[in-house]
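Pilot study result, target chain (143 residues):
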Amino acid sequence: MFCRLRKCMNMQRNRPAIPEALKMKLWTVGSFVAGVLAVGIYMEYQMGDGFLKLSCVCSVCLGIRFVELFWIIYHRKYEVIEGEVVRIQNCQERGKRWEVIARNGEGQEKQMMVSSIYNIRKGKEYCFYWKGSELLGIEEKES
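Predicted structure:
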């Protein structure tokens, strides 16, 4: 029994670290949960018009998203696409999305739709973290 426990603990110690982009996404969602709850408590104290109930409902919804995101990241249920960005093209959708083509080390190209809020540059190497069709984060690889 102790050998199995030791083996399990060694496996957990050897797990690679959580990517920085996904860690920041977790912190952001967790901060939203705490912020909404704090604002609700403050507003309930100031006005007392049921703001606490509304903020609790919002916090629960954001908390569910946080738990879902944590589960995806902890169990590595996401896809990683690494490669150099070879082409960036604006879409016709009012400039809110970019069509990005990335080429990995084997020469295969992957076309993706990425929000324009990410500062992506042609010629740089990135790691794209996906869960299904949802982009979880983007991280620039160091040269």
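One observation from the pilot: The radius of gyration is 20 Å. A full batch analysis is planned for the follow-on phase.
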